[in-house]
Every structure is written in C-alpha cells, then in structure tokens.
Amino acid sequence: MGLLIKSARIIDPQSPFNGKTVDLFIEDGIIQSIQKNIERDTSQLVEFPNLHLSPGWFDMQVSLCDPGFEVQEDLNSGIKAAAAGGFTGLACLPTTQPPIHSKTEVEYVLNKVKSLKKHSVDVYPLGALSFNRLGQDLAELYDMAQSGAIGFTDAKKVSSDAGLLMRALMYGKDFNSVILTYCNDLSISKGGKMNEGVTSTQIGLKGIPHLAEELVVARNISIAEYTDCPIHLASISTTRSVELVRQGKQKGLKITASVNAYNLTLDDALLVGFDTNYKVDPPLRSKQDILALQKGLTDGTIDCITSDHTPVDIENKVVEFDNAESGNIGLETCFALVNTHMPKPLSLDLWVQKTAINPRKLFNLQVPSIQEGEKANLTLFDPLLSWELEQKSLKSKSTNTPLIGSKLKGKVIGVYNRSTYTANLV
Q1: pTM of this structure
Q2: What percentage of the chain exceeds 70 in pLDDT?
Q3: pLDDT at 426
Q4: CATH number assigned to the domain comprising residue 378
C-alpha cells in the first residue's frame, strides 16, 4: 500500500519542484511520482491545509542518555521525540554511562535501534574524542568509525589539552573523521550560572563571560589551520565567536559551525524569574549576540541549527537555580521555537539548508531530495499553524522545557523515512 500526499508545497533547494505545490505518490519507500494531481484509491492519504514538504530534518546534537541515564531519555523515547519534532535523522552524543568511547557502545546503540519497532528516524552515534571523556587519552577513534560512529566529540566536557585535539584531528584525517568541539574555557567560566551582563548583575548570579567561549574558538581555529584539518565548532553563542568563524572561512580554513535554537531566539533577560528551564549551556546571551548569530546564519558563517536536546530529570532541574543542571529538551520544539521567535521570519529554504542538507553533508551522509526515483525521506509541516505545547503531549521522558504552555507557530504534521510514515497530526 502506497502513501499519497496531496497538495504539498515543496521546500527543497535541490529539487526542480522547489516552491511548487504538487502531489507525491510513494511506494516501497521510493518517490514514484510527483505531479499536479495524482489519484490512487488504494493509497494511504495525507492531506492537510497549507501542507509543506521538505527533505527530512537532521539534528546533529542530541543527548539520548542511553545507556546509563534511561530515566531521563532512552533510544525509543528519543526517536519518538525526534519524529514529533520533524527530524528523520539525528546524531547522538556520547553523554552516556559508560560514554560511547569504544566500538562496544557504538554497536550497542546501533543494535538497540535496529531492535525497535518500525520507526522513521535514523540514529547515528557520535563517539567520544577521549577515553571516558576525560580529555587525557584519545579514545578508540578508528575502531568506533569502523563500527558506525559518524564523528567524535567530548560534547561539553572541554579539555584544556590542545595537543589532544591536534592529535585527534591529524589522526582522524586518515579515515575522514568529523571532529566536533564545544568551546568553553572552564578556568574562566567555572561557577558561572548565566551570561555575564546587565541581567546577571541585576539578579545577583555569577556570570559566564563571552571570553570563556571565544578563547577556545580562537584556539581551535588555530589548531585547524596548523593541521590543515576540518573542524566543527558546535553551539557558538557570541558575537565575537561568529566573527572569528567568519574570518576563518574567509581565509579558506576547513571550518563549520552550528548554533542552538535557543541561542538563536531567547535572551538572558528571561532569567529574571529564575526559571531553571532557561539555564542552558552555553547560556542565553544578549540581544546583540542573538542578532549576530542570526546574521551569521543568513550569510553562511553558521552552517547548521541544532536543538541541543538535553533531558534532565526533575530531581536535578526543579531545584534552586544555582544547583540546577543546565539544559532543556528541544527536539519537539526546535522548528517552532525558531519559526516563532526570529524577529524576521526565517526563510524556509534556509531552514531546510541548515537542518536537512548541511548537517548530512558535514557527516558525509546521503542528502535526501524530493525527486522522482529518490528514496523518500520527508518532513511534513505547516509553518503557519499555531499551537500550544502541553506537557502531556511530550514524547520525551523529560519535561525540562520553558515552552510548556507557550503559544507557538509552526507545527510538524508527520515524517516519512525508512518506508514508514509517522503521523504527528491525524
């Protein structure tokens, strides 16, 4: 039985149908036909007002907590949350216990995903850069790559050992590995609870200076230049960081960068109410930083948008602000957050470029495209549909998001991938 999608506006810069409203017929996981009007009586029908269709979105920075912290999230619930947010692919961070630092953990993730019932989300493990993410000895990068790891990172455990990063870049170059780095000088940011600025002074919380991020951004760019190796700078959040990346790209260095959806849209004034769900890492910055990040996104300095999906259980989140863990869940609200809070409406072509195309190119994965004969990997959504996020509707095991009860604009209708359609609205 095939799937017939009626009257969908195509958002795919790679497709000859981009910007056109057409019908799609999918059978056996392949786009069989794209025409103005298709009639198939034996097909499952998907038809919604203002339906938009793009290549499936990909989130390259997701904590799935499995193994070790399954009370916060597991692979099954994370996959459901991803599908609800419009993502048909994700890269899961090695923020587990034990960390994904050998082929054993890589194979655990891949085998567990394979054992799950039919679903629409591809899951790719990211291996740890160092053993136990301690920043001392390189992990088994080659073995993990052979087992299916698509890149390597110690996530937000940032090592002060610049030589370790240099050796990782040079070693990984032999097998085209992707190294992702998070930039934070812990000797400067230690003890900080939020962005250092007017708001931190007003409410009496210790600030995290921009310098903590920018020093490591500059260092990592210099290492990439010295080794002539590609490097990805994850979660940049300050005006100066954007400028450093821009300058590096202008020099022809092999640099890519990503920004978290919350850093792109929300500013540090929101912390006045001490809501721990706004405590994130990197912290919410100033409105000036947000404008610089948005400019960097549109001019090509920033390559990808990520949710930075970080589940935290109630015991570690609903506590005094100083003691709360950083992070919020973002898979289910990433698009709506950006679509709702960008000062100027985000071009849908740009959104697809930053969430569906560029992340896959970065990891050398096949990039889906909406064309006849291509494998169907699709996100169906309505960018104008208003809705309210309710806690009971969350697919994630954790509820640490400040958006519960918020009115949002832009809703995912469903996703199609792996020959499976997962409906979000029926």
Answers
A1: 0.97
A2: 100
A3: 63
A4: 2.30.40.10
